[in-house]
Structure formats: C-alpha cells, structure tokens
Amino acid sequence: MNKLGLHAFVWTAGWTADDAAMAIRSTAELGYDLIEASTMDLKGFDVPSTLRELERNKLGITMSFGLTSDMDISSGDPERVKRGEAHLLDAISLARDVGATHVCGILYSAFQKYAAPVTSEGIRGSIDVMRKVAEKAQASGITLGMEVVNRYESNVLNTARQAIAYVKKVDMPNVKLHLDCYHMNIEEADSAAAIREAGDLLGYFHTGDSHRGYLGSGSVDFPSIFRALEAIDYQGPITFESFSSAVVGQPLEGILGIWRNLWEDSRDLASHAKTFTEVQMKSARQAVAHQRR
Ligand code: MN
Fold first, then answer.
1. What average pLDDT does range 115-137 have in this prediction?
2. Is 147 among the residues known to form the active site?
3. CATH number for the domain that contains residue 69
C-alpha cells in the first residue's frame, strides 16, 4: 500500500518546535501517513520536538531539499563538491535521527536556474558523491530519491530517462527515481510512459498540478498518471506538494517563482488533495484490473 504524504510547506516554510508541532498535528488530523519536511537549515531542525510530535501523532516522516550553488556536487569544482558531500552526509544523519524513511529532492545538483548545460565531468562527480551518500543512508535503511525537475530548477535530471541512466550508474539499491507530475508535465513527452519506463526504479512520487494549486484544477492528466503508477505496481510514498505565496517566503518563492497566491486555506487544500488522491488511486486500480481481465 502506498503511504500518502503531505509536503510541510502546505502549512509552514519553517521548522521551529512550534512549526513542527503544528504541521505534524495538522497532517495527522487529516489522516495522512507521513509528512515531508523540507529544509536546508539542518542545524535549525528541532530533532527532539519533531520526534516527540511524530510519536504523539503516530505520523511517519520523509525529508527533501535541494543543494545550494556553493555546495553543487555537479559543478566539477572540488571545493563545492566537498561541501555538497559534507552537507548530504549531515542530512542523512539528521534523517536517521528523526526516523525518516526517504531523503529526496534535488540532491544531485544545485536547486537553481543554470546558465549552461552540465558537463559529463560534473555528472561523474555527482554520481561518485551520491554513491558514498547512499552507502551511509543504506546503513540506516534510508532510500534516496533523485527528483526529476524542470529545466529552470536544475540542468542535470530533467527527464525520467536521464534519471534512470544516473541511478543505474550510482548502482545502489537504495537510490531511486523521484518523479513529480508537475515537472513531468513540463518536460516529458508522455508522463505516463515515463512512469512505466521508470518501473521498479521509481522510489518516490510527488503529486502537483500544472500551476501547483488544488489537485485537479490544472491541466495534469491525473487518470493516466495514476493508471501508470498502478500498472507498474508502485508501492512507495505518494506525497502532495503545493506552494502558495500565502505560506512560502524567500528564498524559496524566488527560486520557484511563486508570485501568485493559489490558495489561502492550507487545511482545505490538503484535505481535498487526500480525497482526490484516494479517488484517483481507486479508479486506477479498477481501470487496470479491468484491462487485465
Ligand atoms: Mn516535487
């Protein structure tokens, strides 16, 4: 059974003890299985209160983030690669300490609009670091998700096919693809075909509509996405991610281009996303079972 998750930025962009308590409690109240906490500030992450609130609310946790330019492991610059490796290893320690099952996002490069394509040397360096990070993660049972994102957020993995090649080169059982239908809607010729091509290598999934607002209110073809997830028997987490200027401030609003306020009521948005996802999953199960009869 897929665990259903909610990105913490639906509630708050921070992770103080109060932020964590509110986001964890609210996510659990809506019946989600896990919260995806996202932070670059590893030291500002309150571990004891996070653990206490997760336990109190019987909620699981995953983590996500993107590297900054000065720690870009795909840069080919030894100093930046070294800083990136250290940050990723620290993030794995934090994930282990809070009991996270998955660490995902743009772990393989900086999270930014690049002005030039990545070099083959840059990709090789990123793969070498990722293997070391994966070895540490494996010891704590943590899966790493390489999030495939659109061209304005990285120049390394923009399509599922690129990520399949990257993951195969890392060659660790706990390094998987992390696909997101918001990004796929921009870059893939056929999102459902990309999911099928990823197959067993898919380890994490983000739902989001074309404008990152309410699920089903944009142009993403969710029935075909969920049928593809069902067809490959995907069993990993499905996490809803949505951003509004009502919650997210700088620097994220600048990097992601969140200029518009797509919603104000976090609870209504998240409640709707869970119902929408469950309906899509059930419809997809029926559709695929019918095709196989
Ligand atoms: Mn995403």
1. 98
2. yes
3. 3.20.20.150
